[in-house]
Amino acid sequence: MLGMKAYSEDLRTRVAGACGQVGTTRQQVADRFGVSLSFVTKLLCRQRAGGGLAPKPATGGRARCLDAAAQALLVARVGHQPDVTLAELQALLVAERGQAVCLGVIWRVLDEHNLRRKKKLSTPLSATRPAS
To answer: So where are the chain's domains?
Structure first.
């Protein structure tokens, strides 16, 4: 759903007008204009309720779990210690700020700042080299 634009008011007006024609079903109107049946139904319900045909304003999404200071703390820690784990960052937030959040929240903050955590190798590199 993110990134989708609302249908134009011109299209909304034409859809509502086509629904007013006698003998036309909502499904026929939806097929004719290339929109979904649910869009036609919701548009007509909204028009009848006095809401008009204009699209509803965008809501802006959910509120952030972490404020700017908590995000800055995470970014600074990853900058200082690139191999820190998400669980360690989670524990840091609880210890420093008293905020308990899930690992997904921490991952999204790091992803928004384009921070890819560089993990240490779990096994050392092989000491053997190919003969020249």
So the answer is: 9-48, 68-112
